[in-house]
Amino acid sequence: MLRKAERMLHNCEDAADVVQELFVDLLQRGQTEADLPYLYRAVTNRCLNVLRNADNRARLLAREEPMLSAAPRVR
């Protein structure tokens, strides 16, 4: 699962975070038994969420950056 997340995210640290968060969520829900297809699907969905959120964050920052750079600095 870690390799799948790394392939999708192109980042080892983010991939490890995604897989760890998945298992933490499963343990918190008391779901100790999950089949492999479920785990791969869950990792895929979480990676897609990370990618989507990164795209949205970049888009919002690009839109707001001109306003941020024009703001006067207060000392």
Protein described:
Helix 1 crosses helix 2 and helix 1 runs parallel beside helix 3. The model has no long low-confidence stretch (mean pLDDT 89). The chain is mainly α and 75 residues long. It is built from 3 helices and no strands. It has one domain.
Summary of the model, kept short:
The protein is mostly helical and 75 residues long. The protein contains three helices and no strands.
Topology, please?
Elements: H1 2-9, H2 12-28, H3 36-70
Task: Quickly give the structural class.
Answer: mainly alpha
Overall spatial form:
elongated
Strand content: under 5%
Low-confidence stretches: none
> H/E series, N to C?
HHH
Mean pLDDT: 89
Main sheet record: none
Rg over CA atoms = 18 Å
**Span between N and C termini?**
49 Å
The total count of helices amounts to 3
- Helicity, in percent? over 70%
Count structural domains.
1
Strand elements, count: 0
List its salient traits.
75 residues; mainly alpha; 3 helices; elongated
